[in-house]
Amino acid sequence: MAELLLKVLGKEKLPSFFDALKDTGTVFAPVKQGEKTHSFQKVDSLDTVELEYTRTMIPPKKLFIAPEETIFTFDKEKEAYIEPEESSERLVLFGVHSCDIHALNLLARVFLEEFTDTLYSERRERTVIVGLSCIPDDFCFCKSTGTSFASDGFELFLHDIGDRYIVRVGSSKGYQIINENPELFLDAGDEDIKQFKVAENERMNSFNQSLEMTGLQDMLDISYTDPVWKEYGDRCLGCGSCNMVCPRCRCYDVQDYIDLNLTTGERVRRWYSCMLQDHGLVAGGHNFRPSAYERIRNRFNCKGSMRENMPNCVGCGRCSVYCPADIDFLEVMKKVRGELQ
Ligand code: SF4
Ligand code: SF4
User: Fold this and answer.
1) Between 199 and 341, where is the model more confident?
2) Confidence band (pLDDT; 50, 70, 90) for 310?
3) Range of 271's domain?
């Protein structure tokens, strides 16, 4: 869409907006779980949604690539393979932060370009993404990775500017929601735009954490034998949680399960982790990364690199928050850069 369309949604109209989203599809939104954790869950009421969250534990990629799923069943006698029937349920992903939208944009390039993953493309096609501005905490560094503001990859994006939201329209599906609910939205005036800029500047100035990205790949390259990898490799438990919570990680494992009749079976895809011991294991028994320090070095080199012309880390902080060994992503990278000893 060439024209940038700005609307204003008063906060008193949020319940009606939520109802409009429910008319569009089944709504998934951040819900508080336990003391500190949030999760994207199916919601019926705005009362259960926690809009002032920082991050969910599992990123919204779970709605596009399931943690585990059958990608086809096969029948040797019939010489057939059958793809599972994909649901046609329309979904709304409400309250997605810009780092997660950037991560989904990167995943879309992997799963949709060159070889199209039909499961991913069908799910994205029937999903409306509504973004929401956020305030960084002590683990966020998306300003450094250039992912603190999303310019595409959403239908609507809500920016909190106090008593109202500035709503940016990102696609024709978003425009349709605005068109079907004209009573909810006002055109943005000069004062709204001024307030939007003030709120954005405040947000951008509220980051406590940063990572110097310039030359990071080269710094990682020349640090191949740095003792930092042994130091953190000794602490790492090899649990793979950092990969599971990363919105940018996309490695998966594929296994065939053959029924006892040796004729029928299924092929299953599930999320996989480069931090697990067998990730580098190949036929013949050779393991390219048998030690924890080699696996952690591999992961940080992957995250510090550019993929599809974008940083392979969106600065969400999840891997630091959820590492049971308290391995802090920024601390490791700063040691690699020589900023910390
Ligand atoms: S979450 Fe922490 S302990 Fe677990 S594999 Fe990742 S770095 Fe190692
Ligand atoms: S590497 Fe860590 S901080 Fe970067 S996107 Fe993944 S989980 Fe977030």
Assistant:
1) 199
2) confident
3) 216-337
pLDDT level of residue 4 (50, 70, 90 thresholds)? low
Given pLDDT bands bounded at 50, 70 and 90, which one contains residue 86?
confident
Which of 160, 180, 204 lies at the terminal end of a domain, its last residue? 204
For the CA of 237, the closest atom of ligand 1 is 3
The residue contributing the CA closest to ligand 1 atom 7 is 236
Q: How far is the CA of 120 from the centre of ligand 1 (A)?
A: 27
The helix/strand count (H/E) of the chain reads as 11, 14
Starting from the CA of residue 59, give the closest ligand: 2
DSSP element (H, E) containing 97? none
Residue 47, φ and ψ in degrees, nearest 5: -60, -30
- How far, in Å, is the centroid of ligand 1 from the Cα of 236? 5
**The total number of structural domains that make up the chain:** 2
| 221 and 156 assigned to the same domain | no
Ligand 1 pocket member 233 (CB < 6 A): no
Residue with the nearest Cα to atom 4 of ligand 2? Answer: 313
| Ligand 1, atom nearest to 241 Cα | 1
Single residue among 154, 174, 204 that ends a domain in this structure:
204
176 found inside a domain: yes
- Output the ligand 2 site: residues, CB below 6 A: 245-248, 303, 313-319, 329
Write out pLDDT tens, residues 105-162: 999 999 998 889 999 999 999 999 999 999 999 999 999 999 999 999 999 999 999 9
For residues 284 and 320, is the Cβ–Cβ distance under 8 A? no
Partners of 30 in beta bridges: 40
Helix (H, G, I), strand (E, B) or coil at 132: strand
Give residues with Cβ within 8 angstroms of 206, minimum separation 6: 135, 136
Whether residue 44 is found in the same domain as residue 157 = yes
